[in-house]
């Protein structure tokens, strides 16, 4: 693999005239790109990937060039340095890789159709047209697109269409932007439009496989989000329109192309009459994430991929800030506590994890940077800490100045810290660099020493083996005692006599109030008992945080895992959905201590029944008009637990609901539909039911229903049907490559199907590499596998298969970390299994 070479250093493009002719029938692309820019040397390079370059001309003269496929480059000898213009003529294939220019497939009334879309992040613009495909190489782009057009088709791009001539669609020139943000799409599309307060046209586009009403929710959120961001950033949206496009085949969740944001259908379209609140929240946060990028990432772009966090961490925080403003009744920061916070804390505790800011030394490493738990989740927690330190007034002033200073240009992390520091008069860079440049996070131990003083100390926290190299953080403590400083910069601090502090404050001592800082707390027995005696005084986030920190400490073998079980009974009747989310996270982790089919597993099922039965009785099975958000979000946790418990009444009730709706399953309430279908497959399964659900999966355009079917079908225990599921993995007519990981995980987590899924991954690794390799999601097949495996036998098999691949660029870190992830679980089970199972048995008596 070639080392990275920055082509921008010798050639700086100013403008591209891009002509692309797509023939869908022949699956070919013919292109001609004219580039104007400044060359500092007579020999320059531009990027290409899989392009057949036939000619390069300047002023009518043929130029000498050579193609270097290993470096994804074309070397060009120019007639002179300085300002130059040259035209590259080329052709290439339309592929099904979901990268570059590619088709998306769908059906309408049984007729197979396709639309063409693009995905150029990270380095796939070079598959569509020759360019300097680096974030810093900003230029303007004039697109001219021709295709085998038929009546009723629509074409859209970053900018409005200017005119059509001889079947070529010409678009207005873009503003100055990076190559990876260029986008266009065409096909038979439906749309709905509106306009923001400031006159920006907002549209949602989808295939005609969807009901028109499925576009309404996204249109409303997108319009209000742009209004919100223009006000919050105090910077106008810079383009005339903002199109949101749902693509039937899409590798990522969504992509922030400037003016033409692309999405998986599941993350943009929804049926307003039958979609769970959880799914509405997810779709809203995805839309607001991508629209946050229109400023933070698009208007101002990271200079190089090592500062990817500048784009993603910020957008990840802003999605919650925006939705909280648009839908305050949702209490969306509670979702932050159940998604971003635990994801970041879990992964960041494994030795070898990347830091938020990562140097990139090899092209294959760029896609590996997109670690959702670190660059997105941990990074957003970093910025939530910054927001808490600055307050919104200074944050908004700093951002306004940042955009003004760097608009249509590039920036680094230091530029952001300077703008925020100038606005707040705080040395934000000094505080945040300890979080940005170092992997991991601290556990702060709070204990009363032999002198009766309350002492805090920090040390890096690990789950599994970890090498302590003395890392230290500047920790925003967020304590409820004034004696604790705002920032803990030392390894240890003494807060003074505990009894005096306790008496004067009148409530238990706590740290990280609000759970906004990226650390966990280990209280000594006296402090923890005091908190537990007053849990009814804690808000839901604090209750959840208590359980979360203790779970992590137990996984890190710093407290006993068995000690969590009495706590679970204490919170089992909580009406808070975020407390229940953590409660059942702990409960589901207990499954690894009980071997399938063992007496311990039977007792664990009884324990799940004990935890859930009163809640199921309280909430009922079907959503009720006027019920609280918490009740809506809690129901799935307790129903799932009750079905795992083999509660006879629940299994019978679920079967009755299925029977009542068997001819109209799509209309079954989305809140519980997945569990009803899964119960039917597991307890009343048959080949005819299996075929019925697979056919429904292929035919429905409802992404939420599709997701429920994908949860149910791989849960079959029939060996013949398990084999059938595996056969679908490589059949794109059933399982699209974008959905393959979810199907694989569904079968892997099924005890009856795990061996078949694992065999498939090992046998078909080359096929998988050929199909989704080079995609940022490829390495997550390894992550998913390690997340489920927990026995010494599976650990050996995992190592035997993946260790020979450890030097594969882009996979090295993932393989090393995931071996440690499984090792930590094996060690924990070996140490705690008997104590955990004894405590479960004791809790049932």
Automatic annotation (TrEMBL):
<feature type="site" description="Transition state stabilizer">
    <location>
        <position position="376"/>
    </location>
</feature>
<dbReference type="GO" id="GO:0043171">
    <property type="term" value="P:peptide catabolic process"/>
</dbReference>
<feature type="binding site">
    <location>
        <position position="289"/>
    </location>
    <ligand>
        <name>Zn(2+)</name>
    </ligand>
</feature>
<keyword id="KW-0645">Protease</keyword>
<protein>
    <recommendedName>
        <fullName>Aminopeptidase</fullName>
        <ecNumber>3.4.11.-</ecNumber>
    </recommendedName>
</protein>
<keyword id="KW-0479">Metal-binding</keyword>
<feature type="active site" description="Proton acceptor">
    <location>
        <position position="290"/>
    </location>
</feature>
<dbReference type="InterPro" id="IPR014782">
    <property type="entry name" value="Peptidase_M1_dom"/>
</dbReference>
<dbReference type="GO" id="GO:0016020">
    <property type="term" value="C:membrane"/>
</dbReference>
<keyword id="KW-0482">Metalloprotease</keyword>
<dbReference type="InterPro" id="IPR045357">
    <property type="entry name" value="Aminopeptidase_N-like_N"/>
</dbReference>
<dbReference type="GO" id="GO:0016285">
    <property type="term" value="F:alanyl aminopeptidase activity"/>
</dbReference>
<keyword id="KW-0031">Aminopeptidase</keyword>
<dbReference type="InterPro" id="IPR027268">
    <property type="entry name" value="Peptidase_M4/M1_CTD_sf"/>
</dbReference>
<dbReference type="GO" id="GO:0008270">
    <property type="term" value="F:zinc ion binding"/>
</dbReference>
<dbReference type="InterPro" id="IPR034016">
    <property type="entry name" value="M1_APN-typ"/>
</dbReference>
<dbReference type="GO" id="GO:0006508">
    <property type="term" value="P:proteolysis"/>
</dbReference>
<feature type="domain" description="Aminopeptidase N-like N-terminal">
    <location>
        <begin position="12"/>
        <end position="181"/>
    </location>
</feature>
<dbReference type="GO" id="GO:0042277">
    <property type="term" value="F:peptide binding"/>
</dbReference>
<dbReference type="InterPro" id="IPR024571">
    <property type="entry name" value="ERAP1-like_C_dom"/>
</dbReference>
<dbReference type="Pfam" id="PF01433">
    <property type="entry name" value="Peptidase_M1"/>
</dbReference>
<comment type="subunit">
    <text>Monomer.</text>
</comment>
<dbReference type="Pfam" id="PF11838">
    <property type="entry name" value="ERAP1_C"/>
</dbReference>
<dbReference type="Pfam" id="PF17900">
    <property type="entry name" value="Peptidase_M1_N"/>
</dbReference>
<dbReference type="GO" id="GO:0070006">
    <property type="term" value="F:metalloaminopeptidase activity"/>
</dbReference>
<dbReference type="InterPro" id="IPR042097">
    <property type="entry name" value="Aminopeptidase_N-like_N_sf"/>
</dbReference>
<feature type="domain" description="Peptidase M1 membrane alanine aminopeptidase">
    <location>
        <begin position="217"/>
        <end position="435"/>
    </location>
</feature>
<keyword id="KW-0862">Zinc</keyword>
<feature type="binding site">
    <location>
        <position position="293"/>
    </location>
    <ligand>
        <name>Zn(2+)</name>
    </ligand>
</feature>
<dbReference type="GO" id="GO:0005737">
    <property type="term" value="C:cytoplasm"/>
</dbReference>
<dbReference type="InterPro" id="IPR050344">
    <property type="entry name" value="Peptidase_M1_aminopeptidases"/>
</dbReference>
<dbReference type="GO" id="GO:0005615">
    <property type="term" value="C:extracellular space"/>
</dbReference>
<dbReference type="InterPro" id="IPR001930">
    <property type="entry name" value="Peptidase_M1"/>
</dbReference>
<keyword id="KW-0378">Hydrolase</keyword>
<comment type="similarity">
    <text>Belongs to the peptidase M1 family.</text>
</comment>
<feature type="binding site">
    <location>
        <position position="312"/>
    </location>
    <ligand>
        <name>Zn(2+)</name>
    </ligand>
</feature>
<feature type="domain" description="ERAP1-like C-terminal">
    <location>
        <begin position="511"/>
        <end position="823"/>
    </location>
</feature>
């Amino acid at each position: 693999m070639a080392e990275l070479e920055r082509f921008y250093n010798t050639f700086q493009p100013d403008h591209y005239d891009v002509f692309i002719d797509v023939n869908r029938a022949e699956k070919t692309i013919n292109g001609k790109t004219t580039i104007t820019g400044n060359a500092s040397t007579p020999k320059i390079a531009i990027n290409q990937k899989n392009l057949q370059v036939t000619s390069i001309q300047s002023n009518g003269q043929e130029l000498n060039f050579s193609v270097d496929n290993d470096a994804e480059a074309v070397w060009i000898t120019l007639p002179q340095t300085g300002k130059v213009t040259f035209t590259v003529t080329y052709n290439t294939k339309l592929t099904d890789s979901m990268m570059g220019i590619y088709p998306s497939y769908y059906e309408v009334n049984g007729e197979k159709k396709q639309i063409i879309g693009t995905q150029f992040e990270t380095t796939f613009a070079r598959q569509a047209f020759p360019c300097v495909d680096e974030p810093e190489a900003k230029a303007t782009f004039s697109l001219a697109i021709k295709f085998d057009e038929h009546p009723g088709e629509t074409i859209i791009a970053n900018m409005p269409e200017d005119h059509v001539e001889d079947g070529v669609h010409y678009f207005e020139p873009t503003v100055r932007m990076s190559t990876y943000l260029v986008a266009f799409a065409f096909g038979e599309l439906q749309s709905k439009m509106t306009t923001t307060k400031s006159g920006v046209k907002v549209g949602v586009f989808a295939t005609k496989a969807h009901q028109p009403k499925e576009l309404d929710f996204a249109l409303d959120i997108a319009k209000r989000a742009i209004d919100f961001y223009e006000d919050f950033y105090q910077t106008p949206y810079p383009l005339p329109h903002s199109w949101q496009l749902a693509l039937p085949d899409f590798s990522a969740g969504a992509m922030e192309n400037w003016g033409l944001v692309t999405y998986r259908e599941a993350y943009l379209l929804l049926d307003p009459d039958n979609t769970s609140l959880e799914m509405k929240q997810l779709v809203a946060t995805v839309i607001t994430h991508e629209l946050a990028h229109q400023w933070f990432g698009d208007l101002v772009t990271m200079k190089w991929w090592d500062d990817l966090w500048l784009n993603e961490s910020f957008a990840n925080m802003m999605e919650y800030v925006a939705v909280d403003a648009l839908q305050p009744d949702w209490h969306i920061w509670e979702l932050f506590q159940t998604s971003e916070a635990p994801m970041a804390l879990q992964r960041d505790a494994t030795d070898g994890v990347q830091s938020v800011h990562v140097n990139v030394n090899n092209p294959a490493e760029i896609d590996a940077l997109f670690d959702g738990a670190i660059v997105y989740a941990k990074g957003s927690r970093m910025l939530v800490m910054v927001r808490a330190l600055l307050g919104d007034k200074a944050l908004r002033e700093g951002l306004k100045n940042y955009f003004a200073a760097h608009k249509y240009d590039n920036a680094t992390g230091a530029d952001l810290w300077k703008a925020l520091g100038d606005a707040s008069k705080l040395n934000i860079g000094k505080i945040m660099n300890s979080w940005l440049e170092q992997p991991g996070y601290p556990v702060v131990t709070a204990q009363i020493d032999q002198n009766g003083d309350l002492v805090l100390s920090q040390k890096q926290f690990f789950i599994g083996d970890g090498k302590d190299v003395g890392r230290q953080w500047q920790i925003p403590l967020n304590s409820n005692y004034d004696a604790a400083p705002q920032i803990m910069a030392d390894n240890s601090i003494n807060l003074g006599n505990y009894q005096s502090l306790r008496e004067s404050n009148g409530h238990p001592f706590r740290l990280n109030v609000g759970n906004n800082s990226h650390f966990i707390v280990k209280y000594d027995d006296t402090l923890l008992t005091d908190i537990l005696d007053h849990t009814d005084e804690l808000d839901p986030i604090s209750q959840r945080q208590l359980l979360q920190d203790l779970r992590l400490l137990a996984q890190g073998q710093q407290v006993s895992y068995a000690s969590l079980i009495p706590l679970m009974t204490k919170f089992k009747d909580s009406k808070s959905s975020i407390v229940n989310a953590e409660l059942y996270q702990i409960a589901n982790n207990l499954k690894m201590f009980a071997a399938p089919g063992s007496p311990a597993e039977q007792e664990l099922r009884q324990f799940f029944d004990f935890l859930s039965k009163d809640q199921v009785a309280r909430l009922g099975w079907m959503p009720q008009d006027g019920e609280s958000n918490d009740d809506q979000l809690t129901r799935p946790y307790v129903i799932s637990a009750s079905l795992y418990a083999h509660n006879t009444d629940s299994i019978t009730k679920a079967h009755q609901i299925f029977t009542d709706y068997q001819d109209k399953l799509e209309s079954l309430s989305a809140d519980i539909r997945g569990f009803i279908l899964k119960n039917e497959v597991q307890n009343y399964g048959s080949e005819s039911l299996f075929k019925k659900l697979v056919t429904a999966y292929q035919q429905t355009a409802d992404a939420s229903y599709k997701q429920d079917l994908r949860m149910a079908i791989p849960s079959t225990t029939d060996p013949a049907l398990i084999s059938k599921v595996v056969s679908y993995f490589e059949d794109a007519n059933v399982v699209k490559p974008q959905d393959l990981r979810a199907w694989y995980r569904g079968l892997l987590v099924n005890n009856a199907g795990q061996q078949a899924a694992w065999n498939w991954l090992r046998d078909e690794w080359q096929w998988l590499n050929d199909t989704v390799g080079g995609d940022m999601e490829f390495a997550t097949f390894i992550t998913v596998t390690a997340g489920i495996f927990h026995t010494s036998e599976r650990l050996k098999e995992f190592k035997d298969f993946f260790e020979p691949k450890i030097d594969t660029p882009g996979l090295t870190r993932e393989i090393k970390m995931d071996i440690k992830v499984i090792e930590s679980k094996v060690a924990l089970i070996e140490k705690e299994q008997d104590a955990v199972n004894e405590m479960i048995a004791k809790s049932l008596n």
